[in-house]
Design brief:
By secondary structure, the protein is of the alpha/beta class. The chain contains 12 helices and 9 strands. β8, α11 and β9 form a beta-alpha-beta unit. The structure holds ligand C2E and magnesium ion (2 copies).
């Protein structure tokens, strides 16, 4: 690291390397040992309260460490190349699950949103893989949304833009995740093949803020709508966040105030319960929003 420096070796460093090594080996076994689980977080349209989509979120039930969150193992999966197999597994699970959701095959069904790592898009085989999953599970392409992070738009993963465009031509929608936190320029977005932008929680929570009157956040939401995109507010945690969205027509919202990520059966129950509430012909899309009180 340069001349005239001391580096002190501490036994804990050795332990850290070992445990990381162990964690890596564990991750290799996670898929064959069936330790990965997918949860679903519903996304609502406001102010109607319709469930319009649900995001598939990965968790790892580690035999010793308990439930591990994606931030703690997705980077490792990307580093080791395991993300290809894991990502494909998530896609297949999520598509199979969404096939069970009421209203599937109808025009206004509920698409499942699946996160895709830039590493997956690097592979030329990705489009074929997605098509095979759709064929195996019987899910229609318009019932699938693929979420990519904003960083992808800048890094210009080779061939990624063309690949996303090809996926869109199949009828799959593309969502730009965590919008506003990366470094992509607004003009870049104009040319990027995208149908949905998911605006990062940092802007959702400041929409109703008194500091700058929420001006910047408001502009970002308005910008998405003016491009004709579907706009999702991420991280709606408070009643005030939800109220601030009233200015935008057909706005989508996701967050703990509305519903937490849940397992597949709970998601199905939620959709079934709501469709019963409205009668079978109304489909499953209508859900009462927790406008007054905190969601349970
Ligand atoms: P993301 O795609 O932006 O997913 C939204 C994250 O926000 C989820 O965290 C969700 O649980 C959390 N969230 C939802 N509502 C609220 C809220 O009201 N407040 C707060 N503070 N957080 C909320 P999670 O499940 O821990 O996932 C973290 C990230 O890990 C995801 O961010 C996504 O980038 C990545 N990830 C998750 N599953 C997958 C996957 O299957 N493949 C890939 N490549 N990445 C995944
Ligand atoms: Mg996402
Ligand atoms: Mg996000």
């Amino acid at each position: 690291l340069g001349k005239g420096r001391w580096e002190v070796f501490a036994p804990s460093m050795h332990a850290a390397v070992l445990s990381r090594h162990e964690f890596k080996a564990d991750l290799h076994r996670a898929l064959p040992r069936d330790e990965l689980v997918v949860q679903y977080q519903p996304i609502f349209e406001v102010p109607s309260g319709d469930v319009v989509s649900a995001e598939a979120l990965l968790r790892w039930r580690h035999p010793r460490h308990g439930l591990v969150q994606p931030v703690d193992f997705i980077p490792l999966a990307e580093e080791t190349g395991l993300i290809g197999a894991i990502g494909l597994w998530v896609l297949e699970r999520a598509c199979a699950e969404a096939r069970r959701w009421p209203g599937h095959g109808l025009r206004r069904d509920i698409p499942v949103a699946v996160n895709v790592s830039p590493k997956q898009l690097q592979s030329g085989a990705f489009i074929d893989e997605v098509q095979r999953v759709l064929a195996r599970t019987g899910l229609s392409p318009w019932s699938l949304i693929l979420e990519v992070t904003e960083s992808l738009a800048i890094e210009e993963v080779e061939g990624a833009t063309a690949r996303l465009q090809e996926l869109r031509e199949l009828g799959i929608r593309i969502a730009l995740d965590d919008f506003g936190t990366g470094h992509s320029s607004l003009s870049r977005l104009r040319d990027f093949p995208v149908d949905i932008i998911k605006i990062d929680r940092a802007f959702t929570t400041t929409l109703s803020s008194s500091r700058d009157g929420g001006g910047l956040s408001h502009a970002i939401f308005a910008f998405g709508h003016s491009l004709g995109l579907t706009v999702v507010a991420e991280g709606v945690e408070e009643m005030d966040d939800l109220r601030a969205l009233d200015d935008f027509p057909r706005q989508w919202a996701q967050g703990y105030h509305l519903a937490r990520p849940m397992d597949g059966d709970a998601m199905l129950d939620l959709l079934d319960a709501r469709s019963l509430e409205r009668g079978p012909e109304a489909g499953a899309r209508v859900v009462r929003l927790p406008l007054q009180s905190q969601a349970s």
